Amino acid sequence: MKTPSPIKLSWPATRGFWEIPVLFEDEHLLALDKPAGLPTSSEAEARVESAAEVERPNLMKLLHAGIAAGKPWASERNLTYLNNEHRLDAETTGVLLLAKNKPAHVALADAFGCDQPLRKYVALVRGNLIEESFEVNARLAPHPVQPGLMRVDKDNGKAAKTKITLRENFTRAGYALVTCEPATDRSHQIRVHLSHVDLPIVADELYGGKKLWLSRLKKDFRLKPGHEERPLLSRTALHAEELSFPHPVTGETVTIKSEWPKDLKVALKYLRQYGV
Predict the structure, then answer these.
(1) What is the mean pLDDT of the chain?
(2) Residue-range domain boundaries for the chain
(3) How far apart are CA 234 and CA 91, in angstroms?
(4) What is d(CA 38, CA 208) in angstroms, rounded to the nearest whole number?
(5) What's the DSSP call for residue 14?
(6) What is the pLDDT of residues 194-245, one digit of tens each?
(7) Within a 10 A sphere around the Cβ of 205, how many other Cβ atoms?
């Protein structure tokens, strides 16, 4: 089976360029391997801070602009319609599903509304787990004074549940790799739930996470003169690893997977070497 060609997107105002791999494609669906740093669509974190600042791009805006301009990736697919069926936060990487026509979108919206899709995320967190698996069942609501943030609110929040499973413990360093399976789909759900149980995601500064530095792991760490250390991970270490759902036309189960991004692989390499 021929591998679908990647989606090439650009934002001339900031000289931004993205070549996004296609993970799955048929007549009705398109699944992309979303990169870090690109919001899915317009959201609070993509605000414009001043009138002179160029508006930050988002994935859906770039895709729609490419379709309107008849870019090669759109023309070869005869694309006239694309709609995202769920969101990934700007720094989150991995599987993002889109519908290529309205009937598919309607069917998928019903499925996602019933929490039918099985979503698996991998997260690198600060802390060590004693339990192999547990659930976080904590209601979530928007933060009352910090727009764009969520918090646990047992009285006024909406029901939210996430299953957490340990994959690797880096006991000496104080980190762990976990799988997260949200049973509901609330904004920032995994990030808030992990922070709530004192397992903040690495580099998720909104919810208590700190960047990961090699100098904190390696005792004899030395920098070359004139060099400045860069963190191993400087963005929220959350990756949408797998998505399973009923196909909107055939009803058959579709499972789409995404490889871990390079920065996460590098971080884990050093944690396995110096943090166990």
Answers:
(1) 92
(2) 1-114, 116-276
(3) 10
(4) 21
(5) G
(6) 999 999 999 999 999 999 999 999 999 999 898 999 999 999 999 999 999 9
(7) 13
In contact, 190 and 121? CB cutoff 8 Å: yes
Report pLDDT digits (tens) over 137-178: 999 999 999 999 999 999 999 999 999 999 999 999 999 999
Catalytic residue numbers? 89
3-state secondary structure of 95: strand
Phi first, then psi: give them for residue 68, nearest 5 degrees: -65, -35
Q: Which among 221, 203, 214, 217 is positioned nearest to 126, based on CA atoms?
A: 203
Tokens for 208? 């208590």
Name the amino acid, one letter, at 17: F
State the fold for domain 1-114: Alpha-Beta Plaits (3.30.70)
Domain 116-276 superfamily per CATH: Pseudouridine synthase (3.30.2350.10)
Comparing C-alpha atoms, which of 105, 82, 106 is closest to residue 9? 82
Place of tokens 């996602």: 112
Note the pTM of the prediction, 2 decimals.
Answer: 0.93
If we measure between CA atoms, which residue out of 192, 182, 167 comes closest to residue 119?
A: 182
Alpha helices in the chain (DSSP H): 59-69, 72-75, 102-113, 189-196, 262-274
**How many helices (H) and strands (E) would you count in the chain?**
5, 14
What tokens appear for 141 in the block?
Answer: 């609501």
Q: What is the largest CA-CA distance in the chain?
A: 61
